[in-house]
Write a structure and sequence with these properties.
There is one protein chain. The protein is mainly α. The chain has 6 helices and 2 strands; from the N terminus they run ααββαααα. It has helices spanning 2-26, 45-62, 88-94, 98-130, 133-144, 147-154; strands at 69-70, 79-80. The protein is elongated, with a radius of gyration of 18 Å.
């Protein structure tokens, strides 16, 4: 029983560490969590991704229709969103959060969770392979803050940043 409690405490501490890494990577986002999205001002992918989260919720809960098509972009024509920057899993995961924080806050929460889970998952894998907590922490941090993931986050494609 004491061993299980120790393991749970370690897992919680490591998860919190990677959440801190996520906040540090996206700083100053945490201060503008519901009003700003990650990315550069001249890029439009972030806004498109945020719209996709909103559209998933709106199409399923308000319109009761398939979220993979819309006539809300080029009305009155229907647009097929299957080849669009559309992440239905992220959209579904954002539905419970959107009434509280809106689409921007939901996107930011998904970004923070993606970074933290990437680090934590690699930590678990490295701990299993290396049998070393310090090495596993370093491996998880390198993946969570690595250039491939931060590139996709800054490009407004957090679904591509998931390991």
């Amino acid at each position: 029983m004491a061993q299980a409690l120790k393991k749970t405490k370690r897992s919680l501490a490591v998860s919190c560490l990677y959440l801190v890494v996520a906040v540090a990577l996206t700083y100053p986002l945490v201060g503008k969590f519901t009003t700003t999205i990650v990315g550069r001002s001249h890029d439009h992918e972030e806004a498109t991704f945020s719209w996709s989260l909103w559209w998933t919720r709106f199409s399923l809960l308000e319109l009761h229709q398939n979220p993979f098509t819309t006539d809300y972009v080029f009305a009155p024509f229907t647009v097929d969103l299957r080849m669009h920057n559309f992440a239905p899993l992220y959209g579904l995961l954002s539905i419970p959060v959107q009434p509280l924080w809106g689409a921007a806050g939901a996107l930011n929460a998904l970004i923070l969770i993606t970074v933290a889970l990437n680090g934590y998952t690699v930590y678990l894998l490295a701990r299993e392979v290396l049998e070393d907590d310090a090495g596993a922490l370093i491996a998880g941090t390198l993946v969570a803050a690595g250039p491939a993931l931060t590139f996709h986050l800054r490009a407004g494609k957090p679904s591509f940043a998931a390991v």
